[in-house]
Amino acid sequence: MQRLTLKLFCGFIERALETICAINQTSFLLGSATSGYHGRTKRHRLAGRTSRGIVDLMLLLLLVTALVCLYRYYEMKGEDQARIEKFLEDYRAMKPTRFTYADIKRITNGFSQSLGEGAHGAVFRGMLSREILVAVKILNDTVGDGKDFINAVGTIGKIHHINIVRLLGFWADGFHRALVYDFFPMGSLQRFLVPPNNKEAFLGWEKLLQIALGVAKAIEYLHLGCDHRILHFDINPHNVLLDDHLVPKVTDFRLAKLCPKNQSTVSMTAAKGTLGYIAPEVFSRDFGKVSYKSDIYSYGMLLLDMHWTLVLQWNPIDRPSMRTVVQMLEGDGNELIAPPTPFDTSSSRTNVIIPTGRKNVFELEVIPEIEEQIRPYL
């Protein structure tokens, strides 16, 4: 294509130059004949040369204009092509890649650097390129019937949010499966949940508030921002990773369930999740039906680990939505009704109006022991 364009471009210049020469030659012959016939004077010859110079200048200007237009045309075409290529590259990056075993072995350098091992598999550090570090989770093929793998790829593979970990690819060969994620060297939130008097490791209340807000926005996106409502069912500090800037990323969608947005409850045959973070209704229907509010209870337990108890309610009806929680943490909107006291045997709501604002987030504490622990650091 470039050779053809260059050939046409050179032909255009050649024809333009031939035209200029032909016009000059014609002007010269006409000038000679007129001079022989009329006996032109030097003044007439000078006028003829001036007219030929004007014609040459006009043709040259036309030629330069044509060249500039041609250059701009192909420059814009090049920009369009570059834009298309960038879109295709980004589009390929948005869709998880299916790797082979040879790819996984090469990425992990023969599974040489282990990051840890749990009940569901081992995690290895890997490298897609010199710039992209990844974490490769080799799933335990003796656990489950493949539904966890389908849940992980089917949910996280379709969503994109700044506070949700990105699935780069996967490996599936019979009973052998793996998931490839972005690598976060800071690890999980769990390692930073230390007492405030641990000055070296404690992140500070402002940073913890930003992390809590990021996790809340991730859950809000899962509940409201996708085509289907996505229920995580395993929100806990181990499943919140932190990047270099301590931006939280919710991960591990093995237990996730999808349901229509107009459906508020889901059915579960058995209780799943991490002990200590599972909502009571997941264990027993006596507490209510299982719904997206179960994620909100787990989030409340995570806040309890972070020394807050904004949304920790036994009764699912008393738990606010994640949108309300985000408003509380951001300090946006009008006045919000405070949630009832956690673990209160009474089912009545606390009829208290709490103005929103960052300085009031900590005032939502309702467990006296924790409130007294936090107050010296506010």
UniProtKB/TrEMBL annotation:
This is Protein kinase domain-containing protein. ATP binds at residue 137. PROSITE patterns: PROTEIN_KINASE_ATP, PROTEIN_KINASE_DOM. InterPro entries: Kinase-like_dom_sf, LRK10/LRL21-25-like, Prot_kinase_dom, Protein_kinase_ATP_BS, Ser-Thr/Tyr_kinase_cat_dom. Coiled coil: none annotated. It is a single-pass type I membrane protein. It is found in: Membrane. Its main location: membrane. Gene3D superfamilies: Phosphorylase Kinase, domain 1 (3.30.200.20), Transferase(Phosphotransferase) domain 1 (1.10.510.10). The keyword Kinase applies. One of its GO terms (cellular component) is membrane. GO terms for molecular function: ATP binding; protein serine/threonine kinase activity. The chain crosses the membrane at residues 53-74. It comes from the Eukaryota. Pfam families: PK_Tyr_Ser-Thr. Keywords: ATP-binding, Glycoprotein, Kinase, Membrane, Nucleotide-binding, Serine/threonine-protein kinase, Signal, Transferase, Transmembrane, Transmembrane helix. Residues 109-378 form the Protein kinase domain.
